[in-house]
Automatic annotation (TrEMBL):
Residues 1-92 form the HTH arsR-type domain. It comes from Lacrimispora saccharolytica (strain ATCC 35040 / DSM 2544 / NRCC 2533 / WM1). Keywords: DNA-binding, Transcription, Transcription regulation. Pfam families: HTH_5. PROSITE patterns: HTH_ARSR_2 (PS50987). This is Transcriptional regulator, ArsR family.
């Protein structure tokens, strides 16, 4: 259950189209908040809200330089999340449905 609980925050953070698009933008490298704002029809406080959610779950890093905030993807968290997503979407010997209490009939 722990391996599922540790990734719930990432799924919640990615449950918003703007945040998914921000992650896509950051896949090209670090960006200033002002560059992210240029692509959206949202206010700076709304962007800050989205970035707080992405930072709180560990998916993004933030750093301040002068008056500007810069954001980047946390590569370690991204790789870990990719592995987890692959593990829950692939057939495997130790699948939870093989524990005898499966509701899907795959025992």
């Amino acid at each position: 259950m722990d391996k599922y609980n540790e990734h719930v925050g990432l799924f919640k953070a990615l449950s918003d189209v703007n945040r998914i698009m921000i992650v896509d933008m950051l896949s090209c490298g670090e960006l200033c908040a002002c560059k992210i704002l240029e692509k959206f029809n949202i206010t700076q406080p709304t962007l800050s809200h989205h970035m707080k959610i992405l930072c709180d779950c560990g998916l993004t890093n933030a750093r301040k330089e002068g008056k500007w905030m810069y954001y980047s993807l946390n590569d370690h968290v991204v790789q870990d999340f990719k592995k987890f997503l692959c593990s829950i979407t692939s057939s495997k010997e130790d699948c939870i449905c093989k524990g005898g209490n499966c509701c899907c009939g795959k025992e």
